[in-house]
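Lay summary. Proteins are chains of building blocks that fold into shapes, and those shapes determine what they do. In this project we predict the shape from the chain. Here is one chain we studied, written as its sequence of building blocks.
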Amino acid sequence: MKSIHFAITDLWRRKWISLLLLIQITLLLFISNFAIASIKDLKKMEQEVTRLTMDTPIYFMKDFTTEAHFDELIDDDNKRALHYFEKLYDTLYSGNYNADIFSLFSNSLPFDKELFRESLDTITYEGNYADVPTLNATDELKQYFKLEVAEGRYFNQTEYADKKKIKPIVIGSELAKSVSLHEVIQDAGGDQYKVIGILKSGMSYIDISSNREFISLDNTILYPQNKHYMTGGMEYYALLSATYIATSDETIVKDIVEKGNNHNLFTWTYSDLSQQVKYVIQDKTKWIQMQLMLTLLILIFTFISITVAYLQFIIQYTYEFGVHILSGATKKDIIFRVCMQLVLLFVLANSISAIFMHDANQLITSFIITIVSCLLLWIIPIVKIMRTTIDQMLRWR
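And here is the predicted shape, written in a compact code that computers can read:
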């Protein structure tokens, strides 16, 4: 216990250096976890895309309409464009094609913040309103991303076709902390929704053509894709441009795109998801390489800083170590005192990082980094103390 007391005293006596080292170690833990998480996400993304396209190729719609022309067409007062959107929507979702067609159109809805008070740590809010993410849902979405309901049920066919005054919704597991099954809630605009199901915890999907990340559904509201709920040209466009077509017959996709381009309004094309993912992986790999380079630089700088600080401390207090040995201490006690300083700094750094990193795997990663770093950083001071004789310690003054 005396050695731990001495270690704490040593850190306090050099508090500014200790603070600098603590910041470096904390940054090392954060950057290392971030880099490792990115590598895991890349592997998970490759596996997910392989799974999705294993049996049937998946294509997605892309729009190349010029910005000036787009602003003119997307105006809700443009009846011709709105008619075009409705017709293209019917073309895609009428069931006339031998293909699985679904959209990953996501949005958000404002609710009274008090309604989701128990879930505020997982959603954004401003003022008195909570901004809850929403996702357009179909049976194909459930099928392709293996969505499972923990309570209640998923949407049925009538809910995709009929207009209801109270819209059915399925909510994520985090939102279920605030809202119960069968409860009716109301958004800031006065529209009402009834919770018919609650997703299992950990449900997610990947939108490879958009943000290229796995998106958790734990804090999301799913509502049935229904033409009656479309509010205008912008919403139609967002839904259509987030549409995926799973089919082994590429001519189906070509036919859909040709029909979309026949009206000389929007300029559509399509891409194969499996081809697109190659470029996504290349981009993500470069980003991970940058993260690893930054992690390596921080690691080297941290190791040098700690080693120099250790050696400075040993040189500064060598005579004190000698006096302690004369008073009955051993070199093992001195080594324990010196090494405990680093342990305390890493414990503090792990405590700080644990506040922001709630995932168990990240905490385990931080713990492994701590053990490896300590073992490596202890080598030089231990060798230095062991090679210094008691006579040399007492003459150091």
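What the prediction tells us: The CA atoms of residues 29 and 369 lie 7 Å apart.
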